[in-house]
Design goal:
alpha+beta, 1 helix, single chain
Amino acid sequence: MLTFLDEYTREALCVVVRPNMNAHNVLDALHTLLMKHGKPEFIRYDNGPEFIAMHPRD
């Protein structure tokens, strides 16, 4: 489960539930939020493996 919260209002902006979460799932959810709410001033996150995946270079 991946939950995006507004730290000030504690509003859940997005909750993604999948049996297996990978870096692409995280990026898809984050992209949707960026398009809807704009760029956040800060991002705080847990150090799960989804957040340390390397993006392949072309």
